[in-house]
Amino acid sequence: MGLRKDFLWGGAIAANQVEGAWDVDGKGLSVADVATYKPKVDVKDYRKQVGVTTADIDAAIKTKDTADYPKRRGIDFYHRYPEDIELFHKMGFKILRLSIAWTRIFPTGEEPEPNQAGLAYYKAVFAKMHAVNIEPIVTLSHYEMPLALATKYNGWADRRVIDLFVRFCQACFTAFKDDVKYWLTFNEIDSVTRHPFTSAGIIPDQTENLLQTEYQAFHHQFVASALVTKACHATIPGSQVGCMLTKLTDYPNSSDPRDVLASFNKNTMNYFPADVQVFGEYPALVLNYFKEQGIEITMAPDDLAILKANTVDFVSFSYYMSMVSSYDDSNLTLTTGNTVVGGKNPHLETTDWGWTVDPVGLRISLLQLYDRYHKPLMIVENGMGAKDKLTTDHHVHDDYRIKYFKEHFEQMIQAVDAGVDLLGYTSWAPIDLVSASTSQMSKRYGFIYVDEDDLGHGSLNRYKKDSFTWYQKVIQTNGADL
Ligand code: BG6
């Protein structure tokens, strides 16, 4: 069988991790602009270490420094996008996933009119993409909401942010209705409880009942996602809107039924935001969890009807690794993963950053998601962060990366052969960029090497790694030659 003929091969990036130009052309400060360089994240203290405090924000607002705030400088995609898109084109990309920085369009989130310079910038980026036949898939919120909405409203904790977000999205739909057909609402929407600030603008040390607030923020994002889906369909006929989940595939640590139950519960909570966006209602098991935890969601009278009437067209997800769960955490060896800490599977190798490498887990994830949702799927992030070495003649021999992708593609194709409807695959990331969690450049994901170190030194020149030519061949043969 193999992949569909029009399979959407490509790569994925996010504005705050590539653009730089953090204070250019009217852009406002985003939550990403206050994230500092954190090279040493300790497993035991993960959530706290990647989090942000009021003191951190106050210090960040006062400085124009970019050395310690790497997302402010990114890889200068803002100015170098023509060159980068040409390179993606050379690899044969059919699609590029990128995000629109809310703060380029509405710098504080509350301006009466959109910033024309911001709209013009993305218009030019999309024009360049279309000139080389690359279809955009746009994430509307990828860890980069206006900082002003975090400090003023505690981010998505406040219902008023729904309207502000819908207004931003509507401005994008109106401006880009001829340019963009595929849209994603919230990147890794499930991450609100792991990264309340990055994901939802919630400032933990100003929040009384954090758990309650996080679930309230989820609810606001669900309503916003439904309203935005409706607006997108109304403005752009034929458009496709997807949800985006971090697929945190979890296995039982052993066949002890208590471990199986613990793992089931982990997966249930991971699926929950996508469940709401796909089925248009809260799952009974999650409502019961709310009851047990004393979580009470405040809803407006129409909210449930809005959710039910505006579900997503497809399900997209990131997949990097799997973890194991036990009824008793002392049975586990912990390791870090994609925005999580969890039990390490002894059968799997890990990357330099402790993330397990589990290609079969990708196949399992595809089967699970398709079986659950019966909707077309898209893999919109998958890849490995590694310490690459640039040779003196500007090569990177990244056979480890080729191996990683090859093994994942083999499993992906087997899932498709088993009946999964898969629309496309965008690697994270096709070009080296600033890491979301640690803000490192040295955690490299790309097929393209960017000459920039963790402190921002370097020529910013782009060099093709060995994996560049390999991925080009994979796309050319639609996955037949791995
Ligand atoms: C996902 C995010 O969680 O993982 C990306 O959507 C991120 O923004 C990617 O970059 C890899 O994580 P990290 O922390 O290694 O950059």
TrEMBL record:
EC number: 3.2.1.-
Keywords: Glycosidase, Hydrolase
SUPFAM superfamilies: (Trans)glycosidases (SSF51445)
The keyword Hydrolase appears for this protein: yes
Single GO term (MF): hydrolase activity, acting on glycosyl bonds
Gene3D superfamilies, A to Z: Glycosidases
Uppermost EC category: hydrolase
Family designation: Belongs to the glycosyl hydrolase 1 family.
Record-given protein name: Glycoside hydrolase family 1 protein
